[in-house]
Amino acid sequence: MTTLLHIDASVRAAFNPNPSHNSISKNIAKRFIETLKQQQVIDEYIYRDVGMNPPAFINQDWIGAVFSPEEKRTTAQKEILALSDQLIAEVAAADLIVIASPMYNYGMPAQLKAWFDQIIRINKTFDFDLARGDFPLQPLLSGKRLVIITSSGEFGFDTDGIRANQSHLVPHLRTLSKYLGIEHIDEIASEYQEFADTRHQKSLDNAFNQAETLATELALFQQRNSALHVEYE
Ligand SMILES: Cc1cc2nc3c(=O)[nH]c(=O)nc-3n(C[C@H](O)[C@H](O)[C@H](O)COP(=O)(O)O)c2cc1C
Hints:
Elements: E1 3-8, H1 24-38, E2 44-49, H2 60-66, H3 75-93, E3 96-102, H4 110-119, E4 126-128, E5 137-139, E6 144-151, H5 170-177, E7 182-190, H6 198-232
Flavin mononucleotide binds next to α1.
Enzyme class: oxidoreductase
EC number: 1.6.5.-, 1.7.1.17
Keywords: Flavoprotein, FMN, NAD, Oxidoreductase
């Protein structure tokens, strides 16, 4: 049983009248998910395009509602938290999460950050206890896998790359992922989009190949796991 939650964050559509405007991250994610679907490992598929349909930004009323005890929340406060409740339920249901994101201004799009702000919520996805000393926050979800798919115009954002110190997209996603219950992360990156040269084509081809390979590996892993479950039942 695999429930897949797929989050796209580009403000660009996957397909446009001018194909050079097509979102790269969305198309790599599409290849990954289509390959998984061909292997019939997805039982439930949940999709959100937060780039084109962004969640609301949190505000002071949202914080007020979150910190009100559940049984004392007013109808208005429950309404404020309805979207957050829904987005958290989608994360909680998922075994595998795919986040496909462009790099905007060296980090994630504001739309994707808005999604995280709705989800990382006290007593829902983490709890807080000063008895834990310097690390009072503890995630409440666990056991999930994350695939991060990114596209950038420049290049060299790896830890040993020439722009490692400007890399705030994947490091931020990795930091936040533990509040989604992530225990294993795979990464696929396409770079050089702004150079529009052979390095970009090579990087793109590589990312599409990686998407297919990873989906095939995940399907095999899942099939082996479910075979083991049947054997031991
Ligand atoms: C508003 C905006 C900001 C961007 N900022 C960066 C950046 O800081 N670094 C970078 O390498 N590329 C940057 N880019 C280029 C995008 O990361 C690149 O076009 C990528 O392919 C976009 O993802 P998409 O193809 O999925 O839409 C930016 C593009 C836009 C539109």
